[in-house]
Each structure stands twice: as structure tokens, then as C-alpha cells.
């Protein structure tokens, strides 16, 4: 298996999906060792650093894009996350004026005052694999299990568009779901030649919904295997883990993000099990798991999950998830 | 512990929260053995029965209301579900014209045609504790684990209102969350003297979101313990299990249901741990679990869950959940 | 024409649609002279009175309900507003904490602080027929044309429900549209025997949307003629003026209120002109006028208007609007 | 006054805001005579042409972009529409599968079937200045007054983005408001050097909301004067006519589009009249006119209008609207 290592310099970072020349070309089947900057661009290092210093600057830097040889519109890009390891000993989170789920925002404005700014620094204990929350208004702390994930993974959009890395949509992007963790295989519909995928926005931990708008944001070491399936590009990003298949819809209002993932899953169940639309709708009704991803970004994202263990064994995308899991194992223990 | 058994006759069933005289008065601390009719009023018994025969009739019959002595506006009604046992050997689900999450509805109309009607009957295997899905458009079946729950539990609303049993809102009602299962303690703010709570809408199993609008609907044997805490009535229904505390918001659009539960949980975390609002917001951001409840009813419902095991031990509502769990155990094995 | 005068005492006022005994029974065709209290119950008389003193009290008092003899579910109640005359020399408006369109609210909460409270008193100049806005944070005033309207007109709901007078829905209620002015005929579907309609919430003037949540609220003298058409009850409240036919949808989110009125108007145009659904949809697309009603109440309300002068002459509800306009003229000049 | 004529060839048409080289550079103060293709690219010429033939092709071609010399981020681009004259003797409208306001769409999907496709051709009578609607499912026709407008006018977006011409947003674009008619002055915040504005999507007539998704679409002759104000770029597109000032918000759900325009108007009223935020909010509440623009595009658009005649005379953007109206008159009678 070909292996590529890419650590972006500051001026190689990307802030869009589409509209940027690829930093590298690679063949399907390549394993990649990458580093991602955090969403604040590293600007928050102590609790006295305020997130508003980032306003007016580009946010959510991405590593990439990568040109995948042979990828054409309509194909399926496959990204298997082998490993995500925090690249710093701390992550940062913050309230940002008029950003987040429980405040008015430019897309949902009121004439109220913004919430106060506050920054939290979470020490990452790599031995215990925890991140430490420390309250600022009182004496309280809690060590929370780290659960590294990538908030943002996606490909270039269609229709000549260029979108900021803050947006989640049909091309992936800033979906902010904890399901994007090591062991997960992601499937994206390819919209342009070479797919031009990129990734970033490491979270050492995030709750479902990402209420205040920022997770425990941190630089991340990423190992991933990238592959290509000709044709079959899904309408919305799909994920597969050892236990679940998932579809991630992104839209506003929130029910529309849910509907998108549900309709996609109905189509998927139909094709996997030969169910007609009504039967797949009925079956999904009784087995759907629906954790929120984010209710804070430009679009909201909702995951529709189906537990594979409830259903007869089916071959998903030619069994590529199992194959990649096995290829990942062959990489041996990973250190950065 | 006082114990009451109540099996409603057809004309004792209720179809509203508020506006109905109590069927019984009971003292706080009473254990109740109840039976609930299914949401279709038992009308769907075979796949040739269509749900549209129910239109124009009352739907979602409730068992109750029960007058809890001493309950006054502002108090907290506590309902601990001890046991939910399917009362039939089958449950039913159906597509209903212009009802459900992936169709236009009277509250979100289009001028498209309705989906076709179809009814599914799920055999309940009490030994294996499964319900069997059988496709109608192809050969496919799957035995799914039963997960009995109550779709509808609530109290009379405030402001003189009477609401149908189809509505979920701040008073509970038709929230349709799988979290309302045996072992769960529910807390409701009391709005009228006696609280006037009722329950029904048994589901032998339901996915998160209840996509097509109907779960595996079935009559249910219910054992519950009812208690009262003076004062402290929460703004939204709260739930507690052995592992989680939860708040259930209901509204439209879906993000508003989410916001309601999140804001309530921030207040709850604040009062449990002495956190100020921003610290509680931040902490919730990193630990929130957010499974959807329903995206099909008159209001949509979203659950905000916090895993108690992530946080220091706290005394929730005076420890009444543990106490009720222990009282439930003292009831011994339950048969109906 | 039979004529009834009814001036409610404070304890005769109603705060719900449904759930209240009628204050009067009347025959179809009756002319009524009524008085309505303002939405604050008269509590705001000077700028130092704050609206929050009303919280916890009943708001939006209604005059009624009136039992219309012969009205049965499925019928069409017809209410023609003959005259609306301000009953005081001043109206009041106010910001109320967590109420209004440009603030978070209990149905769309955030954890931001509420807006400051402020009360404005508008002098009503009956000679000039203006209401005077006076700024409080600076020197500025403007005399605005008075445009008296009723924020709330409706009938008892179906399905045994009782709803507060703050809610607009399919039964009318708190729609808050400036179209509800003298000269307008309103059509409501009857849900219960006697229809049980009531009205109130006079506004001396209101912009479309009622942004801050309160118009220029004032007590009103109301003259109306009430009639009944057997059958034909519309799904949403319909209005007719000399120039327009209108349908008022109420729902959340706002697009759903729009859809409701649009779909109802498509059905209406279809029945008036023999258009099939697609032709009516197309025609409406090019002629629809859509002023917002309110974006602040429990449901939002949107008016779909069609200018009758663009289309061939049609007989609407048997020509009852013209007939009532003529009956109104026969009442001669009105003084209270 | 410098005058430029530009009639794009087919391959000069643009389909995005941003991402395209300018077709022309011009100085502030230039008058332009332009031609715009219709949104279907001229593909619908008779009722047997179906809009679905356009799917997969670029839609909504724009004339431009034009580079305005001296325009820098933060400036205000001023576009005064002098004249809009239909460039064909017919316009076309159509239902498109899964597109429009009263059907499910990819952004708000259901599993229902699409509406049938149908195309309507409206003859444009230049003498009577009417467009003729002809029903297809029955005998019915109506001559409707033509009301030429541009559905799409905008500038390049910020943050390196490129958006399709189907999207309305803070940079203008596909707002689809009938207010964009001859005599209107539009103000856009400049996001990139040269502003890069373009326009197109002529409608010979459109109702508010554009229910079915397509107006009476037709090629248009456009005369406009373009100017630049240094600084002062508004957050949302603003319009000014002889009688009104307006702000156009675009977002989903629809209430958010409304909020955006309202908040912008509060700021505008504040700066014009020295009102503090609460006074401006109150005043707007009583004088706002709110016609919908579109409820069918990728974002929905809502216009907040204020009648200038209700308020003391104020100088808006230095009085440039009056000045441009006068410059427009100096162009004399326009023929194409």
C-alpha cells in the first residue's frame, strides 16, 4: 500500500471546498498520514485568549485538497479513518459573539446583546485519554473521555461552486458529527475531476449538536486510507462503522436535514435488501437511530443510523469497509 | 405501598390532556397497574385493515386522567415506570395519508398526492422478546428486539387549555420517545390541582424520530409508581434513568424543540453542580447526547441526555429515582 | 335586521377559544354592537407602566363567545366587520421580556438576556384619525394614520380542544392581520354546535408581522353582522374585501403558514373558476399577494391575497360579501 | 454620462456569483443597456416543451459580471434600474419535478411522487402591456398586467466563495422580488474588488412568493445606471423606490429571512432618524410592510418595506436615488 505523509505549512491550508488547487495527487488505495490545524488556527492557547480575535480572519483551516486520480463526477470517494490522535496536550473551546446554538446569529438574528465571550482550555491527558473541563464561574472540574473526531471532511461541490469550510452540505464539509472517528469509512459523491477532498477541524471531544458552536478543538494527527469506487456516488455523505451504516443530511431548518438523511437511508436500505420504498420507510421507522450532529453551523446536520446487527448481513459498497479495516490493521501501530 | 389497578372501559378512555374528569383519585406513593389501548383504538388487526378508517374518529386513547391528591400548580409530579409488558401478541404500524415525517401533512402541506396506505402487523414473540417485520413488496423479514415504551404521558396543561392526546408540549403528552421505558422516572410540572395525568400509546418498538408516524403500536400492561414533590416543577418534562438525566423539548421547527431541552438542561446542570450559565453551556456542548424522539407529531420532540457517569455524583430531585427503583423492586415479579 | 348590543363586564371576558359558556345566543343575520378590551387588559396607561406586570395574568381578553343558532360542524360562519372605532384616546405598545419577533422566546429560546422593557403610549387623534409615535431615547415623533383592526377573531376549535386567545390556528384566533378591518367579511369553518365565536384585541394600527409582538393596542367599539352558510366550512379562515379574497394560514415555521394559505387558495380558485390544481397553482404563482400577518405569536400567520379585479367576476360564497356590505350601509352612520 | 451596451453571446453568460472573469469594466456613473436571457436559457417556447429538459444543464444565466472601477470591500454598489422591457412576445412558466413552494424538494424531501410537469406560455401584448394566462385543464384565460422585474441581481460573495445564480443571500442573487423593477435603486455591500455584479432572470410578471418556482420568465432589455458610494456597504441588499425604503433578507426557514430584513431596517431607521434600537423596533412594528419575495429558492427571501411618506423627510445614501431618477430621465425615451 502506497503511503503519503503531508503536513501543511500555514500557507498551504485551505478554507474552502472547491476553488483551491490540490496540494497533492494520489492514487486510489493510498494511505495518508496527515496533520490538521484546529478550527481557531491555533489562536486560543489560554483562557485569556478570546475567540473574537479570529473574526475577520479565515476560520476552520483544512488539510488538502487532494486530487484522487481517476475520480470523476458520479463516482464514490471512500475515506477510511484509521487513526485520530490529538497533536497537542490541550484543546480549546469558546463562546463566540453571535455564534452557536443557544444564541441569536447572523442567520437567525435578534436585537438582543451577545453572550459574554469565554474561552475554556481542556488539558488532554494522553495516558488516561481524557480532556479536563474546568469551570470558570465556580469550583468544578470533570475529566471527560477523549473521543477524537474530525468535524470537517468533504469534497469539492458541483455546479462550479466554492463553499467555505464552515458549511456542511451534500458534499460533506463541516458536518461536525462525532461519528467521524477512527474506524469509520466515509463515502462521498464525487462532483469534480479528482474529487478534491480535504479534511480538518479535529475535535478531541464533542457532544451531539455542538451546542455552543465549538467542540474541544485541537490539532490532530490523522491516518486515513483513500479509495475510489467507480459510479454509485451517494446524494448525501454516508458513513459506515463496524456496527452501523449512516447517512448525514445537512439543511435548515433542522427537520430538513433529518429528512435528507432519512430519504437517503430509505434508498440505501431498498438497494441493500430489495425493499420497496414503503417497506423501507416502515422498517426505518422502527430501527432508526438519530443522533444530532450540529445545530450551529451554516447548515444543520443530522445523522440517520441503522444498526447492521438488526438486519441480515448485506454487502455494502462491495464490502470495502471490512477490507479497509483489514488494510488499516496491516499498517500496524501508528506513531506520529 | 398502596396499589391500584385500573383497566379502562372503552368509554372511560380519554383523548385530551385537560378537560376530562379524573377516573380515579390517588395518594402520592401509590403503585398502579394499568392497561392502555393502542393508538389506533385497536382498529388495525390485519394488513388489510387500513389506518384511514380511523380518520374522523378519536385517536390515541389515554388511560386516565388520575387526580393526585395534594398536587398543586408549581409542584413536580413523579411517574416511575416499573414495567411495560405488551398486552397482545401483535402490534400494528401503518402509513396514513398525509401523516408522517416523509410526506406532506396538513401542517406542512403540498399539492402532491398522498403516499399509498399500507398496514404492517408485527407478531410479538414474548419468549424471544422480539417483534417481526415482514415486507409486503418483497420477500424480507427481520425479528427486531422488542423495546416497550409509552408514546404518551402527560399532565393537564395550564391557562385553561385542553389539548388533544396527539400533541406533545411542555405538559408532556405525545412525545414519542423510546426513553419512556421501564426503569425511567418522569418529572412533570403540575399545572392544575391534582395534576390530572394520563398515559397511553404503547409502542412495542420505535426508532428515533418515528419516521412514518406510527411505531409498532400495541395495547400495553403498565405498572407505575406515582409520587409528588412539592414545588420545583420543571419547565419541560424531565426523565431520569439509572444512567442519564434528560429533558424533552417539543416545538416546531425541530431546532426549537432542541433548544428548549438544551436550555432546560443548562438550568438543571447549573442547579445540580453550581455552574453558571456559560459553564453549563460549555459543559453540555461536550457531553450532550441528543436522540430525536418524534418528527411527525403536531410538535416535534427532541431529547437532551446527559450521562450521569461522566459527572460527579449529584442528588437529583432528592434521590427519588433510586428510591423508586428500590420501591419497584419491592413489588416483586409482575404478571398481568 | 335584529341588533344586539353587548358590553362585557370584566368577569364576562373570555381568554380561550372553546371551553367557555356563551354570553349570548343570536340568530344568523344579527347585527352586533360590541366593545372589546385591549390585549393588556387595560394595564398600560402611561409609559411608566411595564407590560411585565401582566405576566401571570390572563392576556388578550375576548368578547364572547356568541352562540349562533343553527351553526353545526362543517358550516361556514360569516362575520362582516361593519365598523371599528377606537374606544379610547390612546393606545399602548410595549416590549415584553422574551416576547416578540426579534428576541428569543420560550418557543425559540436562547440563553441571552431579554431586551429591556419599554412602553409607548400613542395618542389617538380622532379628528385626524392618527396615532402619535413618540420616541423615548431621542427627540422624534410621527403621526401615523390610524388603521383600526381586530387582532383576534375566531371560533371554538374541534377535537374537544380549548386554546388560549393568544394562539392563531385553523379556527382563527390571534391571527393579527391588518386585513381584519372594517369592510372585511371573514369566513370560518364551524367546529362545534353554535360556532361559539368571539373577538377582541383591537389594534389602532399595526405593521405586517407585528415585529415587537404588540401593536397599538386599544379598546375598540365594534359593529359586526353575523351570518351563517350551511356547509362549505373552509379549512383555514378566509377573508373577503371589496377588492380581494384571502386565506390566512397559521403554523410554524413561517413557510408552513404560507403553504397552508396557498394550498387553500388553490382549492378556492379551483372551485371559483373550474381550474384544475396545476392551473390554479400556476395562476396563483403570478397573482399572489402575500403580506405577513404576525411572526410573534404561538403560531405565525401569513395572508395569501388575490385581487379579484385581475380575474373574471365570480360569485364568492353566494355573493354574501356584497350583500353584507349593503346591509351594513343600511345601518346608517354609527356612533357609540 | 458614459453609456455602454452589452448583449452577451451564449458563451458569455454567467451561472455564478463570483468565480467568473468580468465581461466588462466600467466607471461609476455609467449607464448600461443590456439584454438578459431567461432562466430556462430560452428552452421553453411552447407548452409541449418541458422544463425537465433543462435539468443537468446550467440554469438562470446572468449577464455580467461587470467590474466597477474603484469598488472595494465595504463599499456600496448602487444599481438604478431605469427601464425593463420584455425582449420577446412571450414568457414561459412551468412546474419542474421537485421544485417549487408547494411540493417536496431536494432541500425538503419526502418520498411522495413529484407533481406532473406542465408548461404555460404567456403571450406578451406590448400595446396593452399584459401577459395572457391560458389554463390547460379547462377553458379559462385571463390577461394580467405585465410588471417586468429582474429575479436576480447581485455581486460576488465574500470569503472566496462562488455561488450559483440560483441562490439568494447577503450578496443579492436570486431574490425574486417584484420590487426589483424599473425605478428602483438597489444598494449592495461590495465584497471583492470591482464588486463584480451581474443581473438576469427577467420576469414579465410574478406574484409574491413565486409559488410554483417559476414566474412568467422571459428575455429582457435592461437599462440601468451603476454607481458607487465609498464605504457604507449594507449587510443585506437594500432597495429604494420613490415611495419606500426596503431591505431584503434571505435565509431558511422563512422567519429567518424576515428577521434579517427587519434587523437591517431597524439599523437603517436608527441611522436615518437617530432612533435608538428599541424605538426603531417599536416604530417598525407599526409601519412595516412585508411582502414575500420567494419561498422556492435555495434560500427564501422576504422584503421589509417602510413607506417614506409616513416619516419625516430623510436623506438616504446622500440622496442618490433622486439623483439617479433624474439622470434616468435625462436618458430620454428608451428603445431597444
Automatic annotation (TrEMBL), chains A, B, C, D:
InterPro entries in alphabetical order: FmdA_AmdA
Listed Gene3D superfamilies: Acetamidase/Formamidase-like domains
Lineage: superkingdom: Bacteria
Pfam families reported in the protein's UniProt record: FmdA_AmdA
UniProt protein name: Acetamidase/formamidase family protein
Source species of the chain: Nesterenkonia flava
